[in-house]
Design brief:
- It is a single chain.
- The protein is mainly β.
- It contains two helices and eleven strands; from the N terminus they run E-E-E-E-E-E-H-E-E-E-E-E-H.
- It has helices at 58-64, 113-124; strands at 4-8, 16-21, 24-29, 33-39, 42-47, 51-54, 70-72, 77-80, 84-89, 94-99, 102-109.
- The strands form three sheets. Strands 6-5-4-8-7 form a five-stranded antiparallel beta sheet, with no helix packed on it. A three-stranded antiparallel beta sheet has the order 1-2-3, with no helix packed on it.
Length: 133
């Protein structure tokens, strides 16, 4: 994993974000992000095509993402609601989130469960043509 910096593409209607990795820039479709994990001032991106490391704060990353699609599930995780496959309890304070076609897990604070569930319901009730890929 490389250290990366992230910048928003100038076109706000685009789902593409620019991710800077050293001298390289990766263009990533936000719809390809499964989840983002913050750990010790580093931000890990788990995407459809690759997983990589950024040194951008979780809060700065969250500002760039569509709040209708992405949800802060705890202090450390931001999850793409369209990618959630299942949720199970792991202890008295958190739930484990699984994703289809991704062998990594994110975690949800039980304090946020009802808001998370309501946001998932909103997405599931959208017309098919409005749903993200």
């Amino acid at each position: 994993m490389k250290d990366c910096l992230i910048k928003r593409k100038f076109n706000d209607s685009s789902n593409i974000i620019e991710v800077r990795c050293g001298d390289d820039i990766k263009l990533i479709n936000a719809n390809d992000i499964y989840f983002i994990e913050a750990n010790r001032k580093k931000t890990f991106f788990y995407t459809t095509y690759e997983d990589f490391l950024s040194n951008t704060s979780r809060s700065d990353v969250y500002k760039l993402l569509n709040k209708k699609i992405f949800f802060k599930t705890s202090r450390s995780y931001i999850v793409n609601l369209y990618k959630v496959y299942s949720i199970k309890s792991v202890n008295r304070t958190s739930l484990e989130i699984s994703f289809r076609n991704k062998n990594k897990k994110a975690y949800l604070s039980k304090k946020l469960y009802y808001e998370f569930r309501n946001r998932l319901k909103d997405i599931l009730n959208q017309p098919v043509e409005m749903k993200a890929n």
